[in-house]
Sequence to fold (236 residues):
Amino acid sequence: MNLESILFTQGFGSRRQCRALIADGRVSVGGTVRTDADADFSIDDSAFGFSVDGVAWPYRERAYLLLNKPAGYECSREPQHHLSVFSLLPPQFAERGVQCVGRLDQDTTGLLLLSDDGKFVHLFTSPKRKVRKVYVATTRHPVDDAQLAALRDGVLLHGEPKPIAAVEAEARGDRQLALTVMEGKYHQVKRMIAAAGNRCEALHRERIGGLALPAALAPGAWQWLDETDLGSLRSG
Ligand code: URA
Fold:
């Protein structure tokens, strides 16, 4: 693939902008500045990478990302009242069509997946596909056995035809509980906790499928998902 196409597919702007980046000597491959937009490279090797303005980029046919979402960010490219999660990512990702895989509320923190692979996004957001998601909620009132039993047995949410049950519900402390759910309904966890007689004051997603939010990833930081991560995601 030629260098212009490599930059273009990776979200570095229009073809004209990519050619200009290359002509201006801002792109290097293997440590060497390349000013020929038509220079050809084999991108079959998964180790292939390039640098733009000294920042290294791997070549990825599809982008699979994980973000440790902080509170105060909306999962939208056009946020209404808060900042966009896309402001935490290099602009190349929005440019190449990366979108959130499901949404977290603006005040919810933790594991958010993003991708430009439409099939992947659909697979992990389709209501038909049951994927376990683990949330940790901080509650206003102490968590008790009756609330946990109600969450496990199923609670009726406004507008839903039948009760929704947590796959697992356990106390993590006096005012903390971990809830595993399969669905991804609007404000689901907060509404379930309210229906069980408590109130959710803070919510954090720590796992999707078999993939946990890496403990070392700071709030607001992101990372690529590798094959092992994608395998874990599917295995849960
Ligand atoms: N459930 C909620 O209530 N909010 C979220 O952000 C995610 C799940």
About this structure: The longest helix spans residues 15-23. The pocket of uracil is lined by residues 104-105, 108, 187-190, 203 (CB under 6 Å).
